[in-house]
Write a structure and sequence with these properties.
mainly alpha; 95 residues; globular; single chain
Length: 95
Amino acid sequence: MRILYTTAVHFQRQILPRIQSKWRPRVTFGFHALCLQPLMSLNANVRALAHKRKTAESKIYRLTKTQRFQQWFPTLLQQLQLVQSGDVINIDFSD
């Protein structure tokens, strides 16, 4: 659990301040859904955070379709050292 705590602290201190305030809730939601729990699928991970399935699915869809997120996400994963050289990241919307 120390790794998750360290990752969350780094995110809040180093990464979140660099993100525009209007994007922070959406990026924080994505960080919690995609970085702080084992990745099953986008839908499965966000359903663990949101009570209603459709709400969860629309939140992750809106997040991942934005151009800025598509630029930030790989950088976030690298800075948090959650992926290594040669790792493959697959974003899948299927159930």
